[in-house]
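Anyone? Bumping this.
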Amino acid sequence: MPPILPPPTPAEIEFLAEHELITIIPSSRIGELRFLEGTYGPFAPPERADVPLWLAVTLRGKGKCRVVPPAWLTVEALQTRCDEERAHAQFSALPFHHAAIARLLLSPPCADDIPNAASLRILVRDLRDLRQSKILGGVGLLDGEYLQMDGLGWMEVNEMRPFFVKAFGTIRQLAATAVAAKAEDDDVADHGAA
Amino acid sequence: MGVVPSEGLDQIYDAIRAAATTVNGVSCLIFVSPDPDALCACKLLTTLLKADTVPHETIPVVGYTDLARINRQLIEPNDALRSIVMLNCGGLVDLSEIISIGEQVRVYVLDYHRPMNLHNLYGHPQVVVAIDLTEHDKTVQEAYEALEYASLSEDDDGDGDEDDDNEDDRASEEGDQSDDEDELTGAPKDLSDAQKLARSRRLRKRLSRRADNSDSEEDLGHATKRRRERRQQLRQQRVVKDYYAHTTQYGESVSTLMYRMTDQLGRTRSKELLWLAIVGMTHLWINHRMTPSDMASVFGAEDDENAEGDSKPRPMTAADLANHRRADADAIVPEDAFFLAMYRHWALYDALYHSSYIATKLGSWRDKGQSRLHRFLLQMGMPLKESLQLYSEMDIKYRRSLPEKLLSVAARYNLDEIVFPSFHRQNGYKSVIGASDAVYALSALLAGGAYHLAKWASGQQDSLSAQAFGGPKIEANTSRLWVQNFYVAYDALTNTELLYSGIQLAMQFQRAMVQTGVTILDRHLVKTLKHFRFAILQHNMTLVRMQGDSQIAPTAVILEQLAEFLIAAYREFKSKKDLPLVLAAPNETGDTYLVLGTTAKTMSSRRNPFGLAFQLAANQLSAQVKQDTFETCLMQIPAEDLEAFMETLQVHINR
């Protein structure tokens, strides 16, 4: 069996999240931009364009575009998500990379473009706490066979992974021991009966 | 380009950028005069240049000799050089006389000092000046060009048809005129080869233009033509003279210009940049280099931009305000600011006592004034105990109601001008810094940041300033100390801790300034002459001692504040007649004096008659007199010449 890779670090996840597309409004005319991974542009204001997050952050840092926050990153949307989290047992529908994207967009240089950035930061934090408590609630459901949690983001999966993997292993071990012990007991009982 | 209106500043930037792509190496040099406005403008420009990866170098310059040294060291040997940006320096003199402008080099002058030298404005095709179009006067340009052309045709002996007597007359006239101009420019007299080259190039150009014009005038009678020409020339000379004699004024702050440039370039607005523009502008405002109407117009524009940039409707709602108070909020908030320097950072009593506006209005250095100050506080409903407390330690109840109370009581004491519209920057719970506080801090850091911070840092190793400054690293060579000061101040633009140390330093300076002012008033050291007053600071005075400690001459900014304090005190308590004031402060060894001339700045005027008078007086005296800053009314004079200088000044001031 090949060795299991260590789980990615948050920075690595953020790096991968930077390939998600995001809408920008260029503020000046920019010619075609050629990169190894692809070609973007040309950009002409006020036409919106979809670019990878890393490019958006770079361009915003140079003051050459404004970032349009994704639909889920507004006060209303996040408030609804928070309410959903409280009301239902399931996880609310958020993008796979929402934690990394929110962090990047809510810190400089992009934060200037996001309306109510301060409130959003708090909401994102609330959301994380709500979901974390739900995840930890899931520990009770661990049975050594499988665990299903729909709608988790990668960052969350990653955060729970080390603990859950270990717990999973331990539970399996315990279960195996329990089975073996039971079999022994049964054996003894059988012999006794016989 | 010659003159670039403030609506087309993007041309300048585009030109710098385009030029940079043609060469390898540092193609752009930025000369910055050490004042908060230029500092902010520099930060704005370098932000832009960095975003476009244009190689550039920032060079702080303090005066003309410095500029000449840099010319030898950095400009002449640099083949890759294409653009030179001058921020708040060099606009007053013929730049082609000081720096060698190579064939491919363009010099962009952004300077708030006025009058702008006409050679820069219209004379040299490679010097580009950014001014407001309202300042661009067609008649001056025509007069200048005609005179320049006339003086060149004078040099050119090929024109043999001049009457001899006339020629002599004109020659002497011309001589006078050009002498005057040289005096006015106050530039070093040694002409470099490059400068001569530039002159001859101009000559050739003008001659070719002349050839085009000459045909139409052929049919006029010879004598009439001559007379008319002569009359016209006198008129033109008057126009040019008027232009310069219009005394020192101030134009628009360069950081505002820079901010407009970023806007015209279509850069996304950011708080960081807007804040720099606000601070730069506030520097001009609190040093009375802007009239209230200027302030109102610029302020209105920035206000809109601010609202737009934050995408928040104004006036602000309670929710917005709540948002600003968040721990992680970074916001620029409009407010009513007071001429109460840094009141957020020291005790209210100290702030009132050391504010030159309030101290001079109440006369708080005298017993009577002291009790008036107490009454002032009483009427504000501010317990003395609270007002002696640091602002941050004050009861929140008093802190909240302070602006309102201050305004209501100020009206009773005839302190109507105490309030002005401004902004403060809220950085979460970490800091609230008013735009004017930032200006005071930057001025103080520029005056003595490196030395004082290093001293504090060595005193208390674990202090904030020690961390911010990275411990003592003071060079033995004190002549370069101001360069370190410059970079400390430059860093403080982005480093809040450093800015806070700047505020502490500014408070020290403010204390010293008021103490010195009071000493001067108490000892009656101000002498009143017919046209101006003057005072000579003495060695044992706090301000001088403090500066002597840091081994630098008292800086202009602090001297200016002192002068303002004295003028205001005189206006309120001694005599109704507003007279300009000349202050002389000795340096550490006492062999030279820094002399500053400043006028009673009623809040609506900003003229300074000394600009011209200083130069005329200096020219009459020995060559020892150094006018080696970018301010016209500031000079270094050897101790033995001081008396003579004052006498000469007296002759010139009433002209």
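Late reply, but here is one note on the structure posted above: Residues 157-197, 307-318, 461-477 of chain B have pLDDT under 50 and may be disordered.
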